[in-house]
Amino acid sequence: MSILSDETKILPGLNEIIIAGTKVDKHELQDLIEKEIKVADQCIRFLELIGVKHIFGIQSSSNLPLYDALCASEIRLIVPKNEAGAGYSVSKYAGVSGNLGVCILAGTVGLNNAIGGIGEAFVNKSSVLIISGSPSRARLHRGGIQNLDTISVTQSITKHSCLVNREEDVLPELLKAAVIATTPPFGPVHISIPVDIQCCTVSNVSKFTAEIDPFLPAYDRSALNAAIDLIDSVDAGIIYAGHGAKKYSSLLKDLARKLGWPVIATPRGKGILEDDFELYMGNYGMFCADFTKQFVEEYKPGCLLILGTGLKEVSITDFDDRLLKDKKIIHIDSDRKELNKVFEVDLPVYFDLGMAFPALIAECQPKPRVSFQKTMFNQPYKKNHSGASVRYFLEQLSEYFPEKSIILSDIGEFMTFVFKYLPIKKDLYFDISTNYAAMGNAVGGSLGACLSLPDYQTIVITGDGGFFMNGMEILTAHEYNLPIIYVIINNAMLGFVVNGLKVLMGRTNDHAMQKRIELAEMYKVAGIPGLTIRENEDLAQIPGFISGLDGPCIIELVIDNSEQSPMMDRLLMLKQIYDV
Questions:
Q1: Per-residue confidence (pLDDT) for residue 2, from 0 to 100
Q2: How far apart are the first and last CA of the chain?
Q3: Minimal CA–CA distance to 301: which of 327, 278, 325?
Q4: Of the candidates 169, 202, 235, which is a domain's last residue?
Q5: In terms of domains, do 243 and 198 share one?
Q6: Is residue 412 pLDDT above 70, yes or no?
Q7: Same domain membership, residue 161 and residue 116
Q8: Same domain, 98 and 237
Q9: In this structure, is residue 373 part of a structural domain?
Q10: Strand duo 9-10 + 17-19: pairing
């Protein structure tokens, strides 16, 4: 399934502009340049031209002209309960759809509230454009209300951040920002527009194209040729695919079959291939399946082909290099900074995967498939605890929910079950923000994910801790009739914290425990249906409960913490740190 955008290209002379796959009509853009129009209207019209369908944000005194201009636009405005929800939603929208995600925020407070989502978009390389208001130029840096240097605040977590000081510069800066956001490696950009500039009338931006140079990435074809030669020189290999390769799942299958090489995925790459694909050995790294861990330890090929991952801590547990030992390493990525950042490899290849896959498939020599036995990823479930089981729920998930579903996992102890036990079938799209790892990001981001793929059922798996951080956005989903299913694992504690303290420190802090609240019952007051699961047998109620949804619902798994989670990878790593 194609979920990420193509390269952004600007050709000389403004003959053609393609942003996130949308071809911009040069005549309409030229007309916009020459038209006498209010800056706020110009901004919204430009967003329409580049194909923006949704904008997330909250209005305030510093961005009211922009929101007023939206009244005459067909762009759909999504107003969350907090800017944090706007930040996470625009990040998820861009990451899942591949379109440019746009967020309009108040300067200072509004922008700062959304920092979590902006940071997530930066770490996850999502194409996001943040437009913030600011006090008028006469009040900047003079003690005006909500006056803060937002450029300095955002520079370290954006690809580009600037304050526009002249009305004639707004449109060129918007185009420049959109190009930067949608040029590999993707990422968020930020433009701050003082409110008095938003109100100005501007026409005939004469230097519109002067600062926008054609961008054609200088990919390293010679290194890709060397990779092909190296692949041809070895008898056996293994492919390690990350989230950056998710767009190319069908090409990945073709390459694996031609080479006869097995495939493993990073934790965030989980879902790149369905579990029953004959060469897929599961997701590796933290909390991986028993079979996958055993397979990696026993299978000793001569080459490791790494595609679309930065080999971060979750992907290579505690940066243990056992996967890389005694192999020739090829690492292909469209972000040059990811190459040789964690481990020195034999052959770093700076190349776009969308172009690399066809070349590898066409030019690598076919190989006989290596014989190996693929077994069940984990031993069958046996109930050795009381109450409902998170593992059992996840393993039976496809029996309860539609085949075409987006599964968003939040961050918490329950995610260890998700990595290890959630089966991936055809048409199931899985996403988790492991590297930024903010609790509540999936709850806040669910609005964007749902809008990005409306034909899919959006399902959020979160804990009560993550829910408390951004749970008000369920009310936003209710107001917009977004049929999102929120599965809340309610264990009345921060599981990683409490269980981690017990293992690492030999004691826990009573304040880390929480008073159990019946969350499904709480939201029924707002008209949001809820179902409470206390035993495995209660799961049979789910299909009937979700039938005919026209808005969000809550499924709450109340668990008693007697089921052991597969979190030891993380705890053992931390124990090594604390023992130093």
A1: 26
A2: 45
A3: 327
A4: 202
A5: no
A6: yes
A7: yes
A8: no
A9: no
A10: antiparallel
Question: Domain check: are 274 and 183 in the same one?
Answer: no
The length of the chain is: 580
What tokens appear for 348 in the block?
Answer: 């770093």
| Judgement on whether residues 158 and 73 belong to the same structural domain of the protein | yes
Domain boundary among 202, 229, 248: 202
State both tokens at 541: 């109620």
Beta bridge mates, 238: 304
User: Mean pLDDT over residues 220-242, rounded?
Assistant: 95
Q: What is the pLDDT of residues 176-191, one digit of tens each?
A: 899 899 988 899 999 9
What pLDDT score does 310 carry? 86
d(CA 455, CA 457): 7
- With tokens 């790294």, the residue in question is 285
**Cα 319 to Cα 285: distance, rounded to the nearest angstrom:** 10
**Furthest CA-CA distance within the chain:** 73
424 sits in the region (left: phi over 0; alpha: psi -120 to 50; else beta) called beta
**pLDDT at res. 11:** 33
Q: How far is CA 178 from the centre of its chain?
A: 19
Quick one: 409 and 542 in the same domain? yes
Confidence of residue 575 (pLDDT cuts 50, 70, 90): low
pLDDT digits (tens, 9 = 90+) for 181-219: 998 889 999 999 999 999 999 876 655 543 444 455 789
**Amino acid identity, residue 287?**
F
Number of domains observed in the structure of the chain? 3
Residue closest to 390 by CA, chosen among 223, 241, 539: 539
The span from the CA of 160 to the CA of 52, in Å, is 20
- 8 A C-beta contact, residue 323 and residue 304: yes
Q: Indicate the SS3 state at residue 193.
A: strand
More confident residue, 388 or 211: 388
Q: What is the pLDDT of residue 580?
A: 46
Q: What is the CATH number of the domain that holds 83?
A: 3.40.50.970
Structure tokens given for 275: 């579990």
Tell me the average pLDDT of the chain: 87
Same domain, residue pair 198 and 232: no
Distance separating alpha carbons of residues 389 and 560, to the nearest angstrom: 9
Average of per-residue pLDDT across 393-407: 93
Q: What is the DSSP letter of 107?
A: T
Query: Is the pLDDT score of 359 beyond 60?
Result: yes
> Does some domain include residue 374?
no
* Domain CATH for 334: 3.40.50.1220
Q: Is residue 355 part of a domain?
A: yes
Domain shared by 174 and 318, yes or no:
no
Q: Domain for residue 213, yes or no?
A: no
Q: How many CB atoms lie within 10 A of CB 566?
A: 19
| Helices H / strands E in the chain, number of each | 23, 23
Whole-model pTM: value is 0.90
The DSSP string of 121-190 is HHHHT--EEEEEEE--TTTTTTT-TT---HHHHHGGGSSEEEE--SGGGHHHHHHHHHHHHTSSSP-EEE
Domain holding 432, by residue range, is 390-579
What tens digit of pLDDT does each residue of 270-325 get?
999 999 999 999 999 888 888 998 999 889 899 999 999 988 877 776 667 778 88
For 505, the 3-state DSSP assignment is helix
